[in-house]
Amino acid sequence: MTKEEKHLWYDFLRICQFRFRRQELIGNYIADFYCDKAMLVVEVDGSQHHEPDALEYDLKRTEYFNSLNIEVLRFTNIEVSKNCEGVCETILSTATKRVEFVNKQNQLYLK
Asked: What's the pLDDT at 111?
C-alpha cells in the first residue's frame, strides 16, 4: 500500500462502522478497498493514473465494477493527504446511502 492508502486504512477504513477489506479481488481486478455490504470500492490514485493507458484501464475497471452494481469512489493521493477528513466524510456518507440502496434492492429481489 502507498503512504496515502495506509493513512486512509489505519486512520479510518479499518475502524469504520462499515467493514472494508484491502486489496480485494473482484473478477480480474484488485480494488484498493471494498465494502461488500455497501457494494462500494474506494480507490486511491497516484499520479500514474493520469497517464492515457492508466486512464483507459481505470475506466474499464470502473465499468466492470459498475456492471456488478458496485459503485467506485476515486480519490487522489493529494486529496487523502491534504483533506483526509473530507475524504472520510464522503466515504461514510456514500457507504451509508449505498447500504440503504443495496438493502432495498435485496428486498425487491426477495419479493
From this structure: 58
DSSP per position, 49-77: GGSHHHHHHHHHHHHHHHHTT-EEEEEEH
d(CA 37, CA 46): 27
> Domain segments of the chain: what residues?
3-110
Dihedrals phi, psi of 24, to nearest 5 degrees: -85, 125
Work out the mean pLDDT of the chain and round it to a whole number: 92
Taking residues 71-98, report their average pLDDT: 96
CATH class of the domain defined by 3-110: alpha beta
Instruction: Report d(CA 71, CA 90) in Å as an integer.
Output: 13
CB 20 within 8 A of CB 42: yes
- pLDDT category of residue 30 using cuts at 50, 70 and 90: very high
Query: Do the bridges between strand 21-26 and strand 71-76 make them parallel or antiparallel, or are there none, so unpaired?
Result: unpaired
